[in-house]
## 1
Amino acid sequence: MNTNEGFRIEFIETLDNYKINPLGIISLKRAMVSFFSTYEGIHRNVIIRDSDDNNNSQYPAMYFEYYIDCIVFFQHFFELTIKDLLAHDSELLITTYKNKDSIEPLYDLIHKIDTNTDGVNSVEFSDALDRIKKLVTKIYPDGSFDFIKQKYNALKKLNKYRNMAVHRGRFILKFEELDNFIGKEIFPIIQDIFNHPYYKGLDKKWRYPLLHCGIDPFEEIIKECKKPETNHKKIALLKELGRAAYNQTSKNKKLWIYSKGQKNLIKQKILASAQFEIPIPKEYLHDYMDICPVCGEKSIISFKDSNDEYDIDEETGEQIISEHIEWVGAIKCVWCSYELDCSYIGDISQFGLTGLHNYFK
């Protein structure tokens, strides 16, 4: 490897000299954004949501894009994390010996000569997973990482989905099955990892800023997926809250903007964006806008649908409108991009979440 072409990544060192590859955390953040975005990838396509067709050709390319990123980056996060767990005991546990050119750094490593393992091939994820299953109780006898062994099958399945998507490109999970897999099997492992003292505080590097409504989509999805029957409309709502949360301005940056007297400028930008979406004079827009549950700005605009019921006038024989029905078909935040198809999500009040306006009644 030519060191002039790049540079080595510096690991994060935590308790007991435990080292964490920061690229794993970067991949986790990208995986989270991609998973949350899968609702955005299909939310305008009613045919998908109402179909049980296993070969549904109506899935848009955007869903495929988010799905592949989600699976690949989750797998990459776990691969690097498991190698961190193994390497804490010895770098030898993550090496393979197929490359004849790797013998010198391997020799140096065995004899504890100051070296790095860049010249030694690293094992593939499936091999690393098998090794941690066999060795986790020996490397960590206190049982603090036993959950990795207990979740072996889920991680094996993740690797299978990754290989099916990348190597053959012939299999994609339907969005509800993706919800089940990530919410029931993957999120709880991530939760356990970042509850461990070695990872204390590092969740801030991949989590989204706090939502104005106080809801934590990651935690709520885990709770929902523990129920006997998962409400996928609620999961869709939570995913959209999470996706938009990554788009919102961080709390520190928002305080800095406001301290610089830019609050009125932000309001003007919001109004200009809203006026572009719906042709209402700027001076009247405030009356048609609501507080966004994600970013806390008065930046939600509603898009209404309507339908007329007709009767026949017995005297004239003409059609007359007997009933005019209006409802909110969709809402969108023009500041952080939070957006819902209200007709699909339905009655939000049934989800047991606080701080959310029920647009579709």
## 2
Amino acid sequence: MGMHKSETLPDVTYWLALEIAKVDPVVDFEAMHKGSLELDFLYQLLTAKVQQHWWQQHGIKLNPVVVNNAFFRAVAMLHNRNIEFCRSRNAEETVWVKELLAGNNQKP
């Protein structure tokens, strides 16, 4: 069976990001970014799950450093995406869309 390859990090990061996004209830990225029990729980759960998945699907034993880096990269990526989404919702560029949608809901 193989060991990890350097190109595995982006794949593992992506896989973990998808798994984090599936969590219900929705993950509070602000709390996770600062550290929380939720973060610790997800870390333990998903790092074990990703290692098992990679071993079963690809025959690759992931290096714990790769798994650790991938997990925190995934959290950071999702946190940054959430920040950008919140910023764009209140940006000037989206105000006209909100006004347009509000105008379509009004009856003459």
